[in-house]
Specification:
By secondary structure, the chain is of the alpha/beta class. It has a domain of 139 residues: 3-Layer(aba) Sandwich (Rossmann fold). Helix content is 45%, strand content 20%. It has a five-stranded parallel sheet with strand order 2-7-1-8-9, with helices on both faces. α6 runs antiparallel to α7. The two termini are 14 Å apart.
Length: 206
């Protein structure tokens, strides 16, 4: 008989959770709550050439670097994946992820859709279980309101971000799980439940 596997028990196997979705959909808030609920989860801090926003902290939200440094890191194969989004570069560093997975932690990657696609293509080469999760807005109009309501970008950049978001939403079906973030608490419950079910299924198979 298969016993119930708790989130922390299952995470002892080491897993990679790739969480993607359009800008403004609420990925970061969901991820932060996940991190507070389990001491077996780690968060991969990406490198980016995007300018730091006033409320952001270097080394906590992102590692902020210039384009020349980023390009050098690409040449030195320091990234698990890297992508260009809205004219800025983003990359996931390799060393911390490999170390955490070997120690049995679940590692969360909050990355762009094209970066997630790179990882899916590399999945057979990488010795770690991967789970691909896409966060959806309740509607495109709702997403548009959120992006414009931020007030952090000029209209041209907002329009570009929305254009990218529309393309990303078309890729949602390529992910293992899609979760609509309409009500935050419900979306979080669904996200946690899906992660738990994927982990439990993997432990049963092992």
């Amino acid at each position: 008989m298969n016993r119930c596997v708790t989130l922390n028990e299952a995470l002892s196997l080491g897993h990679l959770f790739i969480i993607s979705g359009p800008s403004g959909v609420g990925k970061s808030s969901l991820v932060q709550k996940l991190l507070t609920e389990s001491d077996q989860l780690k968060f991969s801090i990406s490198y980016t050439t995007r300018p730091k926003r006033p409320q952001e902290t270097d080394g906590f939200h992102y590692h902020f670097i210039d384009q020349a440094t980023f390009d050098q890191m690409v040449l030195e194969n320091q990234f698990l994946e890297h992508a260009t989004y809205n004219h800025n570069s983003y990359g996931t560093p390799i060393p911390p992820i490999h170390n955490w997975v070997k120690q049995g932690y679940g590692v969360i990657l909050e990355i762009e859709v094209q970066g997630a696609q790179q990882l899916r293509e590399k999945q057979s080469q990488l010795d770690m279980p991967m789970h691909f999760i896409f966060i959806l807005p309740p509607s495109f109009e709702h997403l548009e309101e959120r992006i414009k309501g931020r007030g952090t970008e000029d209209p041209d950049k907002q329009a570009r971000r929305l254009q990218i978001a529309q393309h990303e939403l078309e890729q949602a079906d390529t992910f293992d799980v899609q979760i609509v973030n309409d009500d935050f608490d419900l979306a979080y419950e669904n996200l946690e439940a899906h992660i738990h079910s994927m982990l439990a299924a993997k432990e049963i198979l092992d």
